[in-house]
Amino acid sequence: MPRRVYPVSSARAVAARKALSIDFGQLRSIRLVVFDFDGVFTDNRVLVVEDGMEAVFCSRADALGVKLLQQSGVDCLVLSTEANPVVATRCRKMGVECVAEQWNKVPALDRIVNARKVAWSDVVYVGNDVNDLGCLARVGVPICVADADPRISAVCKLITARPGGNGAVREICEWILNARGVSLADAFLAAEAPVDPGA
Predict the structure, then answer these.
(1) Which partner from 10, 15, 51, 130 sits 20 to 30 angstroms from 114, CA to CA?
(2) What would be the CATH architecture of the domain defined by 3-190?
(3) pLDDT tens-digit readout, 75-130
(4) CA-to-CA distance for 69 and 145, rounded, in angstroms?
(5) What is the DSSP letter of 191?
(6) Measured between alpha carbons, how far is 112 from 110 in angstroms, rounded to an integer?
(7) Residue 83, exposed/middle/buried by CB under 10 A (0-12, 13-18, 19+)?
(8) What global pTM score does this model have?
């Protein structure tokens, strides 16, 4: 049964973690986090205007979490089926590598992990929909957002309290930082390079 986790800062978090006996030790050794984009960094909606251009809604809180996680030594990457340039544009702004237009994500994930010579047990994959099932089955720590498809949440070890596009990514970044004994605030203060909280 996957464990639903609550925000780090709330009293509810402390009670929930004690009740569920969640072992965050599994996150301590994580070296690579691979995120889906639509439905994870976004709320899974798309705004289409008259000329066919598309726009999405993302959370700046997520971007800050990813930057601080990267500066702590954890590699982060976006793996998406989406061909729309909005994905690459957003990833560039966040400073995250983007591998897009991958209809079958599993071979792409294999290449990514093998190229980095990372053990599968040290990889997190974050998804929300059925096209993520193959990748979630490969990694040591499969995670999904709160509003993921039920078929996805059924196979994940951890489920965020927040939905996609509304701080779920930030929540996951905080889990991993906390598992390493670092708070998000401490990570920000210790950052070797300026971190733009408005990315």
Answers:
(1) 130
(2) 3-Layer(aba) Sandwich (3.40)
(3) 999 999 877 788 889 999 999 999 988 889 999 999 999 999 999 999 999 999 99
(4) 18
(5) -
(6) 5
(7) exposed
(8) 0.84
